[in-house]
TrEMBL record:
Record carries keyword Metal-binding: yes
Organism: Methylophilus flavus
Every Cytochrome c domain range: 23-96
Keyword DNA repair: no
Span of the signal peptide: 1-19
Name of the protein in question: Cytochrome c
Alphabetic keyword roster: Heme, Iron, Metal-binding, Signal
Length: 99
């Protein structure tokens, strides 16, 4: 009986973590579309997404991605919370970088 309860608990825990991850990715995507794409399009051209995939991109690691998102947040005075930055980092990593 204990093993069944543990199995059910772990299944629910994993399901909640996956749901939270999807929510974080969607929130990050929304922030990118609202705040990042227009700036990147004006400075890089096109729809702005090429800035993430260009051969000579600045971001070369997960820590570099986190630092760049923080830099943009600070320089553009977006006033994002740490959670917002993390959601953007997770979205960009999943969508473009794959670190």
């Amino acid at each position: 009986m204990k093993s069944l309860a543990i199995t059910v608990f772990l299944t629910l825990l994993v399901t909640n973590v996956q749901a939270a991850s999807k929510a974080d990715l969607l929130a990050g995507e929304k922030l990118v579309k609202t705040h990042c794409i227009s700036c990147h399009a004006s400075s890089f051209g096109g729809d702005g997404s090429g800035i993430y995939t260009r051969e000579y991109r600045k971001v070369r690691s997960f820590n570099g991605l986190k630092a760049q998102v923080t830099n943009c947040n600070t320089m553009l005075n977006l006033k994002w919370f740490d959670d917002d930055e993390q959601q953007v980092v997770q979205y960009l990593n999943q969508a473009y970088y794959h670190f």
